[in-house]
Amino acid sequence: MFALVCLVQSTQAAPFDPPTWRDSTWDYRSEDSVDIRSEVSWWKVGGVGALTLSSYAAAYVFVFAKGWWDNDSSHFHMENDFEYALNLDKFGHFAAGVILGESFYEGYRWAGLSEFKSYLFAGLSAMATHIAIDVKDGYSPAWGFSIFDVLSGTLGGFLPMAERYVPVFKYVDLKWSYWINSTYFYDKTTHRGEAVFTDDYVNQTFWASFKPYRLLPSVVQKYYPSWLAFAAGLSINEKAMDFHADDADRRREVYLAFDYDLEAFRPQSRLARSLIKYLNYFKLPAPAIQVYPEFHWFLLYPIKF
Hints:
This protein is α+β, with helices and mostly antiparallel strands. 40% of the residues lie in helices and 15% in strands. It has helices at 2-11, 42-69, 88-110, 115-137, 147-157, 159-165, 184-188, 218-221, 270-279; strands at residues 172-178, 204-210, 228-236, 252-260, 286-292, 296-301.
């Protein structure tokens, strides 16, 4: 789907490129200041569908099957795993939904659907994807169908739509970072076959990144770097992945860090804007401090050294 994004942005020309992309008082996300007239191309719709199915097949073969779906099958059952990773996995499902939502949006937009319909169907497609995954999990003896996992992924799938139409997202971004500082998950995993990095929540941090520049009065903005943001992050310690550990040892971790608002550079090329849009979902290394449950500082978190 990412290849499709590049193709879309390099071939579909906008009427013009406004200099205030996602920076005006009324337009928070649109690639263009006015919506492009919708002309649905059914062969493009078919291409999006074929690429989607191919992506699902590749994900099953290279990720899901070796991670947990190779387990012996069981009768369908539901399981809301509230103790697993202290619920940080719900953030993981949300982040996966975001990437799915962005990718589906690009595909539907390329196929000629209107901006609003593209966002709407992208969110619904992300929801359908999570339902399909969790239905399969429902037949695994080690897992189960979780309505809260589906809900988290669905909310993530609709985040791109919210970023386009809800003003508050002009001032805050939701991000994700990952770096293998600990091999605890890979050493202790009981999954059959190879472990999947998406389940390694010990090394993942989920962030809310705030952009002060966009809140400052214009007289102050000229003295403040528009790209400088501040983020609050949530992660877990190693024991949080151990169901047999004492509750007192299973702890969440809270971080504060500098961040970069890549959209502040306001690239005018649609290809560049798409790349920036995806990159801005990832929290790049920056100075940070851990404020809970202990105090530590890191020069380039999530890299701990």
